[in-house]
């Protein structure tokens, strides 16, 4: 039986099944090699590392998807950006949170999204160390391990938990707006994976994520999962990011349960 999809119209559910298979294979591989003292290399930033496991995870995912969708384009963290042609684009982060993975910490994930003409079709975030698998198809809700999820209904900042990216906490400038937001929330956390943190907002464990300089593969899948769970993601000015314009540049993002979006943005307005 020929499993290759028609190049002009792909059933989202079938694409999701194949993407889930690819992500699960990569998840099993990462867990087989999980533990401290992984060999790593520095990326261009001293805050980022890459390992053999990053590359092999990516290879497993892309090879599986290319067998089914040979005409699709790919954007991925380790391999970079294909020359984009056609209507379908896969956006992949094979190991989001490499530094944590290399130290044997469980705050890492695999992120896979499919876009059609730059609009979201599906998103998957696998958290191998916790055994959680988040997924969404456009217009069909968001799920973790098959159970539907919803963002929280917390409506006061002082009752909220917000995750801050490490660049937000470095306070390279005067940091006054960041400090004001830090003082306004009930509790903070610094997650190792943007995709995982977005999913934690989607399932109501936390209320927000504030992070600087995220690449499209860091949030493409998590953004859809969050929105399908009732949350929202914008830039620091409150504008919804246009993915096509962000294929080659980074985004400073604010994500929340939607109820608290304006309050978080207001605190950051002097950033």
TrEMBL record:
Highest taxon in the source lineage: Bacteria
Stored Pfam families: Inositol_P (PF00459)
EC number: 3.1.3.25
Residues binding Mg(2+) 1, per UniProt: 77, 95-96, 218
Endpoints of the signal sequence: none
GO molecular function term, any single one: metal ion binding
InterPro entries xrefs: IMPase, Inositol_monoP_metal-BS, Inositol_monophosphatase-like, Inositol_monophosphatase_CS
Hydrolase in keyword set: yes
GO-annotated biological processes: inositol metabolic process; phosphatidylinositol phosphate biosynthetic process; signal transduction
Protein's organism: candidate division TA06 bacterium DG_24
Cofactors (names): Mg(2+)
Catalytic activity: a myo-inositol phosphate + H2O = myo-inositol + phosphate
Residues reported to bind Mg(2+) 2: 93
EC class: hydrolase
SUPFAM superfamilies in the cross-refs: Carbohydrate phosphatase (SSF56655)
Record protein name field: Inositol-1-monophosphatase
Family from the record: Belongs to the inositol monophosphatase superfamily.
Keyword tags: Hydrolase, Magnesium, Metal-binding
